[in-house]
């Protein structure tokens, strides 16, 4: 008896790069301009508050809190609302709202009517628009590129974010030496308008769920929050990120005051420090996938979390070492290493969430996670402002470093350290109890 030879199975075709995905390129371009605008705004508003409005520690804490307050106030219902809408249209509308808010700031600043109250109001409005943009953005990517490509898509988008973090502070710091802050804010208005235009060119269309399938908003919110809290691994990741953001916001509220008043850096030096530090984030975006392949998708999360605190410690150490090392160099080195591990951690955990969650639940899941992990930001910023005013800026930064170390414990003491691969929604359709 003879047997026919078995034909060799041809190798699976290598997937095409997302660089050849037309709609992803348009989303990527729009995101690049939006990130540039956000980076410039994040620099110029606090610098304007410190230099021109003479903000103190408490006021800087309040401003930082206002920039993220919407994640605490409307973070949960935003996810349910986004799941009822076309996400592409949400992205465009959020960009237009941010452009309009900053245009009002420019007009009032140029007319001499700027105040901290104005900046608080603008920061609150910007944070509300950012809530909808971020939730819609993270929920839009999987449907646009497919679940098998979300890691590549997130890495490319995170690389753009890191490039913006490098370019925006350096560009903004240099421009603030030669142009007034309101004119630089006017430029950010343009970046958001360009972002909206690029996203508007995306041809991919999605159909929102039928109105007849909608349930009460409270039930939809509870479904998204329950998905996050019932999954044993996702719950650990959310705890780590939430605690880290709480203490990170305490330090962030003091960063500009620390650099400009304690260390004596000017606008250009501050911009250069932030840009040099952000280079680490760019390297992290490029290294995220190789790190996950080398260490494992699961193990890379706790390892990156554990590495953050030693790098963050270089920020307050810059003041103590100033007699031996240039403070600007210490700040830049610490920021670079810290950003590297933050980006590696974020790409791994965001990709995990996107692969794990059913598509119909993505908006609510992402909003629930943002509520839990970003809702701590305004609390941390207000606490940092109070602590900075009572105990001092440098002690507040050391408290932030200690909190960052504690934040790693939920993932470092979890099964993630013993795992290599992470579960997906296709292999684990139900949350693990």
From TrEMBL:
Gene3D superfamilies: MFS general substrate transporter like domains (1.20.1250.20). GO terms for cellular component: plasma membrane. It is found in: Cell membrane. CDD domains: MFS_MefA_like (cd06173). The chain crosses the membrane at residues 32-50, 62-82, 179-199, 237-257, 269-288, 300-321, 327-348, 369-389, 395-416. Pfam families: MFS_3. The keyword Membrane applies. Keywords: Cell membrane, Membrane, Transmembrane, Transmembrane helix, Transport. Its main location: membrane. The keyword Cell membrane applies. It is a multi-pass membrane protein. This is MFS transporter. It comes from Cellulomonas bogoriensis 69B4 = DSM 16987. The lineage of its organism: Bacteria, Bacillati, Actinomycetota, Actinomycetes, Micrococcales.
